[in-house]
Amino acid sequence: MTAVLRARGLGKRYRQQWALSDCALDIPAGRVVGLVGPNGAGKSTLLSLAAGMNTPTTGEIEVCGGKPGSGPDQLAKVGFVAQDTPTYPGLTIAEHLRLGAALNPRWDAALARKRVERLGLDPKKRAGQLSGGQRAQLALTIGIAKRPELLLLDEPVAALDPLARRGFLQDLMETVAEQGVSVVLSSHLVTDVERVCDYLITLVSSRVVLAGDIEDLLAAHHRLTGPRRDPATLPADQHVITASHTDRQTTLLVRAESPIIDPAWTVGKVGLEDLVLAYLESPDAATPRPALEVLR
User: Fold this and answer.
1) Whole-angstrom Cα distance, residue 293 to residue 60?
2) By its UniProt entry, which InterPro entries does this protein fall under (predicted)?
3) Is 138 helix (H, G, I), strand (E, B) or coil?
4) What's the farthest any 2 CA atoms get from each other in the chain?
5) Entry pTM
6) CA dihedral 41, 42, 43, 45 (to 10 degrees)
């Protein structure tokens, strides 16, 4: 497996607070990765470390075969769109593109120009006059036109209305299909992740609690409903993530390495949102399992 991002024991501390701790990841190249978790979980910290905008306190990280931010060649491999989709309010769209060309050795001027034309943006208009959706598209255009191997997006659609968000994500998927770029998309919206991503990383309280191919993760988790039962009596290969009980009934969300054959259980599928919420609610249940943390 070729990894576009590898992390081992990665941690970042600000004074006495760990923003990211003991992070171990192998993100396959060519994937669209959804990075989810509550505020303060470490999503932005992980992306800033991957972009070379920050340095680790502990451990190591490798991106596109090199150390993040280690030089012009390495910086050219990574595109980064921050949460506030940063643009310069006083500069026109055309000036943004000229600046991008001056700063990025792989800059694709034709691609940038075509995107601006297709989006109906006036090159003479200043960024400060654009709507939130238009600024996000301008920032994405700059990130794409530098022709990176890895594109990092930190909550790029958080402030957009549903229509603008859909347009942004559609453009993103077209770029992935045309360029084959790897993407890590941080988002609070599981529906957005489900729409465009094929790989999932879940962060809670500064640590990774779940990572892997979305299809494989969904296939490995099940909702069990049956007569009230102590979860401790389940087979060793059925790991309980969440449990709820009534007087007569038990409902469990479990991760299992083999099929559920106990006839006492009614076995149901788990959706992506339910899976993510289960790990957010019970992060201590997420004991590391390599089969789910490092997938194709």
Assistant:
1) 18
2) AAA+_ATPase, ABC_transporter-like_ATP-bd, ABC_Transporter_VariousFunc, P-loop_NTPase
3) helix
4) 68
5) 0.89
6) 160
What's the number of domains the chain is made of? 2
Whether 176 has a pLDDT exceeding 80, the answer reads: yes
Angle at 169 between CA 62 and CA 2, to 5 degrees: 25
Q: Which residue has the higher pLDDT, 177 or 101?
A: 101
The C-alpha atoms of residue 87 and residue 106 are separated, in whole angstroms, by 20
Domain termination residue (choose one: 149, 174, 205): 205
| pLDDT tens track for 4-21 | 999 999 999 998 899 999
Task: Look at the chain and count its residues.
Answer: 296
* DSSP reduced 3-state for 144: helix
Token readout for 242 is 């969440």
| CA torsion, ordered 95, 159, 77, 3, to nearest 10 deg | -170
Helix, strand, coil percent content, the chain, rounded in steps of 5: 35, 30, 35
Q: How far is CA 22 from the centre of its chain?
A: 18
Domain end, chosen from 179, 205, 231, is at: 205
Buried b (16+ CB within 10 A) or exposed e, 188-227: ebbebbeebbebbbbbbebbbbbbbbbeebbebbbbbebe
DSSP β-bridge partners for residue 200:
34, 212
Query: Cα–Cα distance between 205 and 37 in angstroms, integer?
Result: 9
Instruction: For residues 219 and 198, state if they share a domain.
Output: no
DSSP letters for 174-228: HHHHHH--EEEEE-S-HHHHHHH-SEEEEEETTEEEEEEEHHHHHHHEEEEEEE-
Q: CA geometry: angle at 84 spanning 80 and 86, to 5°?
A: 60
